[in-house]
Amino acid sequence: MMKGCLPGLLAWFCFWSATVSAQVEDRPFIQAVSHQYKVAGHDGQLRLKKTVIDYDDIVYVLSDKGLFWLFEDKLIPDIRYSSLAGKIPVDIYAQEGTGYLYYLYEDHFLTNALAGKPYGEFPSGKYQLMAVNHTGEVLLAGGKNAGIYFRGQLRELSGIPSDIIKVHVHEGVFYLQTKDSLLKITASSKPERIFEMKGLQSVAFRKDEILIGSHGGYKGISLTDQSQRFDWQRKVPVPDIYHLAVHGGELWAGTPEGVFKRQPDGGFRYYASKRWLDDNKVVDMGFDSKGNPYILSPTGLNEIEFRKVTLADKAAHYEAKIRKRHIRFGFSTETKLTDPDNLGMNVLVDDDNDGLWTSFYLGSMAFKYATTGDGKAKRYAWESFEAFERLLSVNQLEGFPSRTFERTGYKVSGPTKWRTSPDKGWEWKGHTSSDEFVGYIFVAAVMDEFVVETESEKKRVADFIDEILMHMINNDYYFVDIDGEPTLWGRWNPEYINWYPETVVDRKLGSTTLIAGLQLGYALTGKALYKEEAYRLMEKHGYLDNIKIDLRKIGATPDVIFQGHNMGDGGWNHSDDEMAFLSYWVLYRYAFDEQLKKDYAWVIRNHWEIEKPERNALWSIITYGTEGSIDQQSVRWHLEGFPWDLVRYDVKNSHRKDLEFLEPNFRGQTTPNLIHQDERRIIRHNTNPFELDGGRGGRTELTGDEYLLPYWMGRYLGVIP
Q: What is the pLDDT of residue 17?
């Protein structure tokens, strides 16, 4: 509700006004999706030379072993014309204007368009390159030889200073590119040199401009008088430009480390790593009629499809993906890939934080059910909640939640801390942490608020959180494992919490999570003990003051050592951000009174202001659902930019010349502004989004529920219509 709203009849209007003002319109946007195509039936022992797309959007790839075309998801030999099957062209070209495909062979050229009439012969082996303009003139080139074939006549050209490496056509005019010059073919037989430069690597044309690419960036000159249009552009992702291309007025550049596109605002979008390309080295590029680029590498063809979708389409994509290949005993789990080319060949694996990660999925289904009434969403929420309940029942301890569980002999995560279950054929993992506790209270809160509909359902959720809280209270606010010892990070005891100085976040965070849990326990069970304990901890042990510590105080604090861990060093902990914001939802919405809500609102706003540079949609939407602030632009930017494919490939951005880098700092912010998510490694919300390099080698795939929770929470709150 907006601050200052009156109770009664005006309350609804105030809430409606706040919702409308915070809305993020779900208009269609462009989503980049990667497709990678291999040559069928080859082991890689062929040289891919060129890609061409004709007017029917048929994609061709020329190799030293023959011509291939893209059929469905494979590059296969083009044997459709029997007269050409088995013959190896030396070059191919899509005619300017028409897009008709022309073939160049050792001693002739031809096309199958125009009833197959265009044809020309010449001495064998003389030409290796061709271009065709809109009038039907054919430029032939090879070495220092060049000629124009038109209406049955070959006119040979002279005066070419060095070997021709590429040929171009623009608005009917031909251009020859050598290693150090660009020559224009005029009506006379002598080519005209219009540009000269050592290290010339690539050329492209844009209206009346020539774009020149080199080892050190690109520049633009006038097509008419060769005057400079703009100086060398060196602050680009990769300055070593092998290939320049223009499509729809947009400039693309191919490099030995991926491709980049110039944005209208002067920035760049950078596509590299196996998320986008099977090999970063760019051989050639082409574009279909929809503007999708096809990037040829030494080992395959890569399409970047620019697909028009909505936020709702994206949510449906992740939901279907999760149900097909990410549900393990009700947990939403990262998968291990056995074949990166076939994402269905994956293995569901246990994780130390199965409960915490699944809280995102269960939470999203709870908010979806509250928003749409979709019965499947309710079913999925209960299926996942059953996994949470079994975390308690699979072990022999009273109220102690297991980290995770698995059938005997099939565990994957760290081999220590696994114990035999009283349930025959099962093992459970101990060592449970505060991260997991945050997942439990968030799950219980959203189940209680949005999913339960009967007294028995309400009791089921209340019993779950009651067991956990009573275990903590009975064990002096520790998670005590089967060995009788507190777990390393399952500690909320005042002696432990208040041992930390205010400059170390654990003091504030531990107080926040525990008070949130006790408030929730009181609301769900009605036990006075939980309220009494919460107030005792807040009043006698300073937990409320701890919660209210200004996060701007947090910084490097030497020599705060706990069991060998330096708790005051290592920079900002983004796992703590994740735990805090999930806890804020519970802390605020289950506050004992309005004064506490006001206190908590300040706490949440204080944290959100610090986190704003990270542009995290979930943090913004949780803040809106509690304190009331929101950054609509960043919510949309985050959700639109969330990668479609979530395989955790290695990526690198630290080499880029277009980025401005900051000095090392406590928060780990590397650049003034966050780069696009499509250009970063795939991460969860507990990781620094400003880290420029990293990944998991393409061996695992995340689920997408990191998108689903802010999306459906935003839908419920009216942020997303």
A: 46
DSSP state of 5: P
Strand partners, 304: 34
Over residues 149-154, mean pLDDT? 93
Least confident of 60-74, 120-134, 167-181, 338-352: 338-352
Q: How far is CA 43 from CA 70, 301, 342, 345, 525, in A?
A: 17, 15, 18, 21, 64
Q: How far is Cα 592 from Cα 594, in angstroms, rounded to an integer?
A: 7
Average pLDDT of 3-8? 37
Fold of 311-649+696-717: Glycosyltransferase (1.50.10)
Contact 311, 28 (CB under 8 A): no
Element holding 243 (H helix, E strand): strand 243-247
**Residues forming a β-bridge with 269:** 261
Q: Which residue has the tokens 């297991």?
A: 402
Q: How far apart are CA 257 and CA 240, in angstroms?
A: 9
Q: Whole-angstrom Cα distance, residue 387 to residue 359?
A: 11
Instruction: Tell me which residue has tokens 């190799």.
Output: 63
DSSP annotation of 592 reads S
Q: What is the pTM of this model?
A: 0.93
Predicted confidence at residue 1, as pLDDT, reads 30
pLDDT (0 to 100) of residue 380: 98
Closest CA to 355 of 347, 363, 345: 363
pLDDT of res. 44: 64
Query: In the structure encoding, which two tokens stand for residue 179, read together?
Result: 């290693």
Are 114 and 100 spatial neighbours (Cβ–Cβ below 8 Å)?
yes
Domain ranges of the chain: 311-649+696-717
Element (H, E) at 213: strand 209-214
Are the CB atoms for 286 and 45 separated by under 8 Å?
Answer: no
* 441-462 residue pLDDT tens: 999 999 999 999 999 999 999 9
Based on the number of CB atoms within 10 Å of its own CB, is 194 exposed (0-12), middle (13-18) or buried (19 or more)?
A: middle
Single-letter amino acid code for the residue at 93: Y
Q: Where are the beta strands (DSSP E) in 143-180?
A: 145-150, 153-157, 164-170, 173-178
8-state DSSP, 693 = S
Mode of pairing for the β-strands spanning 565-566 and 561-562: antiparallel
Beta carbons within 8 Å of 283's beta carbon, 6+ residues apart: 48, 49, 50, 51, 242, 243, 254, 296, 297, 298
